[in-house]
Design a protein that fits this description.
The protein has 66 residues and is mainly alpha-helical. The chain has one domain. Helix content is 91%, strand content 0%. Helix 1 packs antiparallel against helix 2. The longest helix is centred in the middle third of the chain and has 43 residues. The radius of gyration is 19 Å and the shape is rod-shaped. The mean pLDDT is 82.
């Protein structure tokens, strides 16, 4: 999923370069890039929180079994 997000962001940046002459399109692309990056950050933060929770659970299980 992370590779897809990165590819989409790079594709949007390339699209922004192609339409650089048109201010409205450039602003629209920039807004969409910002939205996509925010969603990507939220997705990655969620994944990291889940991984951290799993590590905490495993650590807790190991310490309680000893």
């Amino acid at each position: 999923m992370e590779k897809f997000i990165l590819g989409a962001a790079l594709g949007m940046a390339g699209g922004a370069l192609l339409v650089a002459n048109n201010c409205k399109l450039r602003n629209l692309v920039k807004k969409n890039q910002d939205d996509l990056l925010k969603k990507a950050e939220q997705y990655i933060d969620t994944k990291l929180e889940k991984m951290e929770q799993k590590v905490e659970d495993i650590t807790e299980d190991l310490t309680s079994s000893n």
